Amino acid sequence: MRIPLIPNTVKLLVILMTILIFAMSYTGHVRTSMLPFPKLDIEKSYLMLGWRLSGLTYDRAACTAALNHPSTQSRPIKDNPIKNGCGYVNAVRLTKIGGVSTSSVRVSCPMGVALAMWMKQVVQPAAQKHLGTKVSRMKHLGTYACRNIKGSIFSKYLNRRSEHATANAIDISAFTLKNGGTVNILRDWTKGNAKSAFLKEIHYGACGYFRVVLGPEANYLHANHFHFDRGMLIRCK
């Protein structure tokens, strides 16, 4: 039996609309305020968290509300319109993340909320579990930087920008503990002790909050830090 033309056309339109909505949501063009979800709480777990974080990309009000938590100190920063692949919109500056102090962190809103959630829900419980104390300070190697991806032959010739170029990434190298101890990724990753177990648990746990999670086992460029970003690709290694 020949299938009528109209039903097939409708099906095609539905498929195309579904793809369009998915693409817009994935890239953050569907704002959190447009979705039937409650305000994000950095202490709670959510289904479809990645979608909710993406919805903060251009939603400054929802971002401010999500980061309004006693354990986190943040403030919005003025947009730096993207030019030649560098710049940022709806970014925040963090000096305390989930109860952990740090030197100034300048990241996109989804990155800021993801960091706060990861710190509260993964890092602190893992520190208590493996080390018997909590983390008091985080050391990072950089956030926003107008540069290409390091170590990539394609970025050299195709001008492929790093997620750092849009304040959408952070490199974390070490932690200070409340008992005065330190955990260093370069030094402790392969030790096979409690510090190593802590690092591997929080590295694996980061995959639920960031799209790209790289550590010492990814390549030699990440031997001394974790790289987290919420770019377009998905990779956890």
Annotation keywords:
7 helices, 11 strands, globular, alpha+beta, 237 residues, 9-stranded mixed β-sheet, 24% strand
Structural notes for this entry:
This protein has 237 residues and is an alpha+beta fold. The chain has one domain (31-236). Helices cover 34% and strands 24% of the residues. The chain is built from seven helices and eleven strands. The protein has helices at residues 5-26, 49-54, 60-66, 109-131, 153-158, 185-188, 194-205; strands spanning 73-77, 80-83, 86-88, 91-97, 100-108, 135-142, 169-177, 182-184, 212-214, 226-229, 235-236. The strands form two sheets. Strands 1, 4, 5, 6, 7, 8, 9, 10 and 11 form a nine-stranded mixed β-sheet that branches. Strands 2-3 form a two-stranded antiparallel sheet. Helix 4 links the parallel strand 5 and strand 6 (135-142). The radius of gyration is 20 Å and the shape is globular. The model has no long low-confidence stretch (mean pLDDT 88).
